[in-house]
C-alpha cells in the first residue's frame, strides 16, 4: 500500500477511523432528499470502493435502514454521516468524501438526483448530471 492510494478519515469526534487501500472507483455529488436529510446538507459528496478496500481501524459504524435496501452509516457518538450501503450490492461500500482527513484528495465526476437540487445552489463545474441515479444505461 502506498501513500498515493491510501486514504484515511473518520468521524467528527474521532471515535470511528478508517483507511482505504485504493482510490475510489467512482465519486459523485448526490442531491436526493434522503441524502439531504441524512447529512443535513443540500448536497452530499460520496466515493465508492470495493468493500475489501476499506478497513475500519477504530470504532463501529451504526446503520439506519432508510429504505428497504439502503443502510446509512453514522457515528453513534457524534452522529457524523459516514457510509451508504445498498444491501443488493454487498461488494461495494460508499463513503462520504467530507470524512476524509484530506477531502481534496477525491474529486467527484458527476451529479445524481439533480431533479432534487435546491434552486438557489449553482454549481458551475464540468461534471455530468443525471436527473435521477446514474445507471449503466445513463452513462452510455
TrEMBL record:
Family annotation (Pfam families): GFA
InterPro entries registered for this protein in UniProt: CENP-V/GFA (IPR006913), Mss4-like_sf (IPR011057)
Keywords for this protein: Lyase, Metal-binding, Zinc
Annotated CENP-V/GFA domain residues: 7-115
PROSITE patterns: CENP_V_GFA
Domain of life assignment: Bacteria
Matching PANTHER family: CENP-V_GFA DOMAIN-CONTAINING PROTEIN-RELATED, GFA DOMAIN-CONTAINING PROTEIN
Family membership: Belongs to the Gfa family.
Name the UniProt record assigns to this protein: GFA family protein
Amino acid at each position: 500500500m502506498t501513500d498515493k492510494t491510501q486514504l484515511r478519515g473518520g468521524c467528527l469526534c474521532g471515535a470511528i477511523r478508517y483507511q482505504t487501500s485504493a482510490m475510489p472507483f467512482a465519486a459523485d455529488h448526490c442531491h436526493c432528499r434522503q441524502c439531504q436529510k441524512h447529512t443535513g446538507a443540500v448536497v452530499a459528496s460520496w466515493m465508492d470502493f470495493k468493500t475489501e478496500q476499506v478497513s475500519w481501524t477504530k470504532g463501529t459504524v451504526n446503520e439506519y435502514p432508510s429504505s428497504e435496501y439502503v443502510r446509512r452509516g453514522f457515528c453513534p457518538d457524534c452522529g457524523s454521516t459516514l457510509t451508504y450501503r445498498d444491501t443488493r450490492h454487498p461488494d461495494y461500500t460508499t463513503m462520504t468524501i467530507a470524512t476524509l482527513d484530506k477531502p481534496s484528495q477525491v474529486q467527484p465526476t458527476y451529479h445524481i438526483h439533480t431533479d432534487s437540487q435546491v434552486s438557489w445552489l449553482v454549481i458551475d463545474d464540468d461534471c455530468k448530471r443525471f436527473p435521477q441515479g446514474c445507471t449503466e444505461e445513463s452513462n452510455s
